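Thread amino acids onto this structure.
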């Protein structure tokens, strides 16, 4: 895909999806500052939003502040805990609504997630004239999402850049 510095882009990050992918694949944390830099790739950033879940842990506030300092607007949602102990925490609808709302001001929508639930969003945005890129770890990215996107950046291809404290087996 051709990228040029005049393209207006918006970056929408499903933080939970990325966190769990990095943790499960590599025992590491995501370097979101580097992810944003790769997603923007020298183009005109209009908006970068990181969607997080508040669970009440002590270290999460420091993490949220680090996202803010890295250039993200941070949107928070409380972890839902149901009577039987089940927990629910996702931003799928919120990310989709924001992407659709902001898309008319963008040339490129970048979704930082591997979740295949976003395929209809990708198709809708493309129908509206936006290019849609996906940034995620290849091993945990839906094949349907990869196929639907105009471009995919596989973070696994450069683990040293995109991971913090990976296990030794994650080197490359």
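Threaded sequence (172 positions):
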């Amino acid at each position: 895909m051709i990228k040029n510095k005049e393209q207006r882009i918006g970056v929408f990050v499903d933080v939970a999806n990325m966190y769990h992918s990095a943790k499960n694949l590599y025992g590491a944390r995501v370097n979101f500052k580097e992810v944003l830099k790769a997603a923007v790739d020298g183009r005109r950033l209009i908006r970068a939003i990181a969607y997080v879940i508040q669970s009440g842990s002590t270290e999460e506030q420091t993490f949220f502040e680090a996202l803010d300092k890295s250039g993200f607007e941070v949107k928070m949602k409380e972890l839902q805990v149901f009577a039987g102990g089940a927990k629910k925490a996702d931003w799928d609808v919120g990310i989709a609504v924001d992407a659709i709302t902001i898309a008319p001001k963008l040339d490129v929508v970048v979704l930082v997630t591997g979740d295949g639930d976003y395929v209809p969003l990708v198709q809708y945005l493309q129908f509206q004239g936006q290019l849609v890129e996906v940034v995620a770890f290849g091993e945990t990215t839906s094949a349907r999402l990869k196929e639907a996107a105009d471009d995919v950046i596989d973070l696994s291809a450069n683990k040293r850049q995109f991971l913090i404290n990976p296990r030794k087996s994650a080197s490359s």
